[in-house]
């Protein structure tokens, strides 16, 4: 048996390297720490230069308040910091740094040269080469601090082995640089790669900074980026985010900043996604840079050496407020891109029936039933006409009133209707608009029809369970389902107006096994409306178009059942 080794206190250099590993993993971690220091020094201008993706050399130059000569040797000592001295300070943290470990860790893993000049003083320089400190000598930048980090991990082969290609390391450094630049728009930032200026970000406002920092992202459309803000007890929220016009297939641009620090806070990323809800199609995610400012008392960054994690005491409140802010402000913000809103319209609220529906009579229902009994292949044209005729019968007076108020110009791309109204032109997505009108209508129409021959539906286990639980809900909507065997159901009744799309309904029933009731209802209606609507790519005649346009102008919120805006207004002035 092997004898246990004796316990001995680690050689300081070994201990230093172990600690260093937690803070400094790769060039990007050095960039993060040096940028934090420059920011904490109240710099108004910061330059970063990388050679070989930072593996060979990282230089950060700032014009901050600098370091005094006698302080230089202290910088690279363990737990040497000017930012925190008491436990109380730790609780009221206002700086990016506080651990006093970064320079110490860098000095243990590379050759670091710190040259610094305070206002009105002579500049001084110190070199620490992999833990070995050299004497301070005279010489420094005009004002501020210049830190050079060379040959990272050259004496720690195990670490160096884990570094990626210089181009990959560069990208990671660049991402850190961008994150800091986005959090501090009032500081000017420059990034050089092998002496070439890659990003030049002059001091500006938050939104302009974000757009400048993400210039290389060709997906972003500046006019589709909006700002939200809100606040709660002890915190405030601010976000720069995309409207429904721009989105991505991943969450990589949902970024959370807490007290200006980029953090991995999944709960808040989820809050953002949740706030967007169905405004975006399934599998799509917004751009959203969310800045949370919280009373430092309620945050603890001191759980991870790189400060990427955070403990929030009021996480639930913040989460809730983020969802509310986005939900409420997203729709309000859309008009900024000149989208219809000012038009005086009949009150509409998704939870309440519209005025037109309140007026619906059995006669109209019968009328609509005729539509639904047409064979499935009946053209959209007939359907549209009848649906619109239906609307007309209910609200003939407001229609009369609006008659002269707009001029239908024509259709483009078989997709959009162009309308002139007062001092604006409007582009209306015909499919989405019609879908919305149909949606409004079916929400209220409850005429039920018994199927002559019940439709058999075979389902999966999860759906079977779901139907057992939600059968009564379906029945309330006129969809009667009978379980006839294990995993086998029968559809016996349908709302009369859904008769023509019974196969879509069956498809819907057999593929939905999740979601709460409100969600289920919304999806069901959206499915129905989508199939009954005029398709994009269909030619529309003048009468149908004009009827459709009238109805659209009467809506308060022109969003389709999936939540997307379908009317764009372009003002004369704008043109
Ligand atoms: P921390 O930032 O947690 O205090 P660091 O190891 O990063 O620890 O830095 C140690 C100290 O060195 C800081 O507290 C600060 O006093 C000084 N320092 C480092 N970088 C700069 C800089 N760019 N300008 C002015 N002072 C600096
Ligand atoms: Mg620091």
What brief labels describe this structure?
single chain, 575 residues, alpha+beta, Heat Shock Protein 90, Ribosomal Protein S5, domain 2, formyl-coa transferase, domain 3, 3 domains, nine-stranded mixed sheet, 19 helices, 23% strand
Secondary structure layout:
Layout (H helix, E strand, L loop, with lengths): L11 H12 L3 H14 L4 E7 L5 E6 L9 H4 L11 H5 L10 H8 L1 E7 L6 E6 L2 E2 L3 E2 L5 E7 L6 H4 L5 H18 L4 E6 L2 E6 L4 H8 L11 E8 L2 E8 L11 E5 L2 E3 L2 H11 L11 E7 L4 E2 L10 E2 L2 H19 L21 H4 L3 H11 L7 H15 L1 H7 L3 E7 L3 E6 L2 E6 H15 L3 E11 L2 H16 L3 E6 L2 E8 L6 H10 L5 H16 L9 H13 L12 E5 L4
Parallel strand pairs: 1-8, 12-14
Antiparallel strand pairs: 1-2, 2-7, 3-4, 3-7, 4-5, 4-6, 8-9, 10-11, 11-14, 12-13, 15-16, 17-18, 18-19, 19-23, 20-22, 21-22
Helix pairs in contact: 1-5, 2-7, 7-8, 9-10, 12-13, 13-19, 15-18, 15-19
Magnesium ion binds next to helix 2.
Rg from C-alpha positions? 32 Å
- Let me know the largest β-sheet: 9 strands, mixed
Number of helices: 19
Indicate the mean pLDDT.
Answer: 80
Beta-strand proportion = 15-25%
Can you identify the CATH superfamily of the largest domain? Answer: MutL, C-terminal domain, dimerisation subdomain
The small molecules bound here are: adenosine-5'-diphosphate, magnesium ion
Q: Report the top-level CATH class of the largest domain.
A: Alpha Beta
Number of domains: 3
The total count of strands amounts to 23
- Distance linking N and C termini: 87 Å
Instruction: Kindly identify the CATH topology of the largest domain.
Output: formyl-coa transferase, domain 3
Helix vs. strand class: alpha+beta
Judging by the overall fold, what is the CATH architecture of the largest domain? 2-Layer Sandwich
Assembly classification: single chain
Fraction of helical residues: 25-40%
């Amino acid at each position: 048996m092997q004898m246990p080794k004796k316990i001995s206190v680690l050689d300081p250099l070994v201990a230093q390297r172990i600690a260093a590993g937690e803070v400094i993993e790769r060039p990007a971690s050095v960039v993060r720490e040096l940028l934090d220091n420059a920011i904490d020094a109240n710099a108004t201008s910061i330059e970063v230069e990388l050679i070989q993706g930072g593996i060979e050399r990282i230089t950060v130059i700032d014009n901050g308040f600098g370091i005094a000569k006698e302080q230089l040797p202290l910088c690279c000592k363990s737990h040497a910091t000017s930012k925190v001295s008491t436990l109380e300070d730790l609780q009221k943290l206002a700086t990016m740094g506080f651990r006093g470990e970064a320079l110490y860790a860098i000095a243990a893993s590379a050759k670091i040269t710190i040259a610094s000049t305070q206002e009105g003083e002579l500049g001084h320089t110190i070199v620490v080469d992999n833990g070995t400190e050299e004497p301070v000598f005279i010489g420094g930048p005009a004002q501020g601090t210049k830190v050079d980090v060379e040959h990272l991990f050259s004496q720690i082969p195990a670490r160096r082995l884990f570094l990626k290609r210089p181009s990959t390391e560069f990208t990671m450094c660049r991402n850190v640089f961008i994150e800091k630049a986005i959090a501090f728009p009032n500081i000017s930032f420059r990034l050089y790669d092998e002496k070439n200026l890659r990003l030049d970000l002059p001091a500006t406002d938050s939104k302009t900074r974000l757009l400048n920092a993400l210039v290389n992202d060709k997906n972003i459309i500046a006019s589709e980026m909006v700002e939200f803000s809100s606040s709660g007890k002890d915190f405030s929220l601010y976000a720069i985010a995309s409207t429904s016009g721009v989105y991505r297939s991943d969450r990589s641009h949902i970024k959370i900043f807490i007290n200006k620090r980029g953090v991995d806070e999944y709960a808040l990323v989820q809050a953002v996604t949740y706030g967007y809800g169905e405004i975006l199609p399934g599998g799509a995610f917004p751009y959203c840079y969310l800045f949370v400012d919280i009373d430092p008392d309620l945050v603890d960054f001191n759980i991870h050496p790189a400060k990427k994690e955070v403990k929030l005491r009021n996480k639930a409140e913040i989460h809730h407020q983020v969802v509310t802010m986005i939900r409420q402000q997203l729709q309000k913000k859309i008009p900024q891109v000149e989208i219809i809103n000012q038009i005086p319209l009949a009150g509409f609220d998704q939870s309440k029936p519209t005025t037109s529906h309140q007026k619906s009579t059995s006669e109209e229902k019968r009328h609509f039933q005729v539509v639904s009994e047409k064979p499935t292949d009946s053209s959209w044209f007939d359907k549209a006409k009848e649906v619109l005729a239906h609307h007309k019968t209910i609200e003939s007076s407001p229609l009369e009133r609006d008659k002269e108020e707009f001029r239908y110009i024509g259709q483009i791309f078989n997709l959009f209707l162009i309308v002139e109204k007062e001092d604006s032109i409007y582009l209306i997505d015909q499919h989405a608009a019609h879908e919305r009108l149909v949606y409004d209508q079916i929400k209220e129409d409850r005429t039920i029809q018994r199927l002559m021959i019940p439709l058999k539906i075979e389902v999966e286990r999860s759906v079977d369970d779901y139907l057992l639980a939600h059968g009564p809900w379906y029945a309330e909507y006129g969809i009667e389902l009978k379980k006839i065997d294990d995993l086998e159901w029968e559809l016996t009744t349908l709302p009369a107006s859904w008769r023509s799309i019974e196969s879509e309904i069956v498809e819907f029933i057999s593929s939905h096994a999740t979601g709460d009731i409100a969600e289920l209802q919304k999806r069901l209606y959206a499915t129905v409306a989508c199939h009954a609507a005029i398709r994009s790519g269909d030619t529309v005649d003048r009468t149908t178009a004009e009827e459709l346009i009238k109805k659209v102008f009467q809506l308060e919120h022109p969003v389709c059942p999936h939540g997307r805006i379908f009317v764009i207004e372009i003002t004369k002035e704008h043109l």
